[in-house]
Amino acid sequence: MRTMPFRGLGVAMVTPFRSDYSVDEPRLRQLVDHLISAGVDALLPAGSTGEGATLTHEEHRRVMDIVLEQANGRVPVIPGAGSNATHEAVELAQHAKRAGATAVLSVTPYYNKPEPEGLLRHYATIAERADIPIILYNVPSRTGRNYLPEVVLRIANEVPHVVAVKESSGNLIQALEIIQERPEGFAVYAGDDIFAVPTVIMGGDGVISVIGNQLPEWTAQMVRSALQGDLETARQWHYRLQPLMQANFWETNPAPVKCVMAMMGLIEEVVRLPLVPVSERTRQRLQELLRKMDVL
After folding, report:
1. What pTM, to 2 d.p., does this model score?
2. Which of 116, 190, 222, 232 gets the highest tally of CB atoms within 10 A of its CB?
3. Which of these is catalytic: 137, 147, 189, 258?
4. Of 123, 147, 166, 258, which residue is the catalytic one?
5. CA–CA distance from 167 to each of 184, 202, 219, 238, 296 (Å)?
6. CATH architecture, domain 8-229
C-alpha cells in the first residue's frame, strides 16, 4: 500500500552558493533550520529551484546529505534525483535511499522526450533498482514534453513505487483529472504556487513551492488553511502572496527568488551559469514589490 510522502507545504529549496560559486554549506544548514521553524511540511533540495542541473554529481549527493543531516528527521526530505539518463537517475535515487531520504523527486526525462512506454520503463527501472518512493515531476516548460493524465495514471497504477506527482504543466485541469482518477494513496501536489489553493480545495494534497523559500510562514498558513477547509483564510493568503508568486518568474527561476532572499539577508545572490543575476530593472521592481508587501 502506498504511503503519502507528506501533506501540505513542501519547499523546493534553493541551493545557496558563495561568491566563488561553491556550495555555501553553512547557509544551506541555516536555511533548513529556518524553513522547519517556519512550519514547512517537507524539504525538497537539489531540484529545479535548487539548480540541480548545474551541480556536479558529488555536489548533488553532498547537498542531499547536508539537508538530511540537518533536518534530522524533523520533516520528510525528498531530494531531486532525476536525469534524462535512466542510469544516472537510478544512481542518485540509490544514494538518496542510502542517506535516509523519505522519497525522491524524479523529473520526466528532458531532451530525450521519451514516448509513454519509455517513460514507464524509466520509472519502473528506478523503482526496481533503488527501492525508494518516487514523486513523478511533470514540467513541460523545462523538459519539452507534457505527459497527459492518462500517462501519469498508467505509471501510478503499474509502478507502485511512484507514490505522487508534482504537476507543473500549468494546466489545472490536468491536476484535477489525476485527482479524480488516481489510485488510493497516490498524492497530487501543485507544482506552481499559483495553483496551490485551487489544487488543495479540489482534493489535492499540497504544493511543492518556490515562494516557500522566501515567505515560508505565510505560505504554510495559506496551504494549511486550504487543507483545513478554511477557504476564506486560504484565499486571503493567496491574494497576499500572489504578486510575489508571479514576480518569481519575471526572469528565469531561481534568479528572482535568490535576489529576494538576498534582500532578506538569507543567502548571497549567486546563481550558476548559464543563469545570471536578475537585471537592474527587475531588481528595482522586486524591491518595490517587497516594500509594498511590507516584507522589507
Report:
1. 0.97
2. 222
3. 137
4. 166
5. 18, 14, 18, 19, 32
6. Alpha-Beta Barrel (3.20)
